[in-house]
Amino acid sequence: MVNARHKLVRVQEKGQVTLPADLRRKLGLKKGDLVAVEEREDGVLITPQEVLATRALDRIGQALRERGLTLEELIESGRDLRTEGVEDTHTASSDDAED
Predict the structure, then answer these.
(1) Please, what's the largest Cα pairwise distance for the chain?
(2) Burial (Cβ within 10 Å: 0-12, 13-18, ≥19) of residue 94
(3) pLDDT at 69 exceeding the cut of 90
(4) Using CA atoms, how far apart are residues 27 and 39, in angstroms rounded to an integer?
(5) Does residue 5 sit within a domain?
(6) Torsion angle of alpha carbons 11, 13, 15, 17, nearest 10°?
(7) What is the pLDDT of residues 3-42, one digit of tens each?
(8) What CATH code is carried by the domain that includes residue 50?
(9) How far apart, in whole angstroms, are the C-alpha atoms of residue 94 and residue 99?
(10) Are residues 20 and 61 in the same domain?
(11) Which residue range is the domain that position 94 belongs to?
C-alpha cells in the first residue's frame, strides 16, 4: 500500500526514474545535480550529494569541537606543517648539493 509520503514512479528504459517535481523542489535538486544511490535491505535510498557533504562536514566540525579546536586552528596547523616540510626538503636538497 502506498501512503501519503510515497509516490509511484515508473522505471524507464535503461533503469531511469523521474523523481516527482514536488520532491525535487523540496530537496533542491536541479538538472545535473548528483545523488548517491545506496541499496538498503528494504529498498534504495537516494540522497543528494550536497547533503552527504554537509553531513561529513558536520561530523568533522563535531570532532574538532570535541578536541577543543576550531577550523581556523586546523588550517593554520596545516600551513605550519607544509612550511616545515618545504623547509626540510629545501635543507635536504642544499645538503646534497654540498656533497
Answers:
(1) 80
(2) exposed
(3) no
(4) 20
(5) no
(6) -40
(7) 557 889 999 999 999 999 999 999 889 888 889 999 999 9
(8) 2.10.260.10
(9) 9
(10) yes
(11) 70-99
Q: Do 99 and 51 belong together in one domain? A: no
Cross-strand bridge partners of residue 15: none
* Residue 35, helix vs strand vs coil: strand
Element (H, E) at 99: none
For residue 96, the model assigns a pLDDT of 58
Quick check: is 23 in a domain? yes
User: Which pLDDT value is given to residue 90?
Assistant: 58
The three grid cell numbers given for residue 62, joined into one nine-digit string: 563535531
What is the mean pLDDT of the segment spanning 73-94?
A: 74
* Residue-level pLDDT at 43: 93
Residues 61 and 75 in one domain: no
What is the spatial distance between Cα 46 and Cα 65, in angstroms, rounded to a whole number? 30
- What is the per-residue pLDDT for 99? 56
Same-domain pairing of 64 and 75: no
In a domain, 4, yes or no: no
